[in-house]
């Protein structure tokens, strides 16, 4: 999976493929998920951790009761790469169950 920083055109194209995800500050791919309960939110984070370990690509995670916010970036590329978008797609699959 490529860790090369994507161009603005490439980013726009990739964002269309990950509904619900957006950009923050130009370098972050972000999404929030809401769950019916705190234990379900924490269980989701546990599953996200397994995906992150498999990809060796770890998000910033904020848990606020039933809301989980994930932020991704590729530090070495100083921005977003294909790895961020593939990881985001996998997180969505985890959320869908």
UniProtKB/TrEMBL annotation:
Entry EC number(s): 4.2.1.96
Top-level taxon of the source organism: Bacteria
GO MF annotation list: 4-alpha-hydroxytetrahydrobiopterin dehydratase activity
InterPro entries: PCD_sf, Pterin_deHydtase
Keyword Transmembrane on entry: no
Top EC group: lyase
Keywords tagged on the record: Lyase
Annotated SUPFAM superfamilies: PCD-like
Any GO BP: tetrahydrobiopterin biosynthetic process
Catalytic activity: (4aS,6R)-4a-hydroxy-L-erythro-5,6,7,8-tetrahydrobiopterin = (6R)-L-erythro-6,7-dihydrobiopterin + H2O
PANTHER family given in the database record: PTERIN-4-ALPHA-CARBINOLAMINE DEHYDRATASE (PTHR12599:SF0)
Alphabetical list of NCBIfam families matching this protein: PRK00823.1-2
Family under the similarity heading: Belongs to the pterin-4-alpha-carbinolamine dehydratase family.
Protein name stated in the entry: Putative pterin-4-alpha-carbinolamine dehydratase
Source species of the chain: Paenibacillus rigui
Organism classification: Bacteria, Bacillati, Bacillota, Bacilli, Bacillales
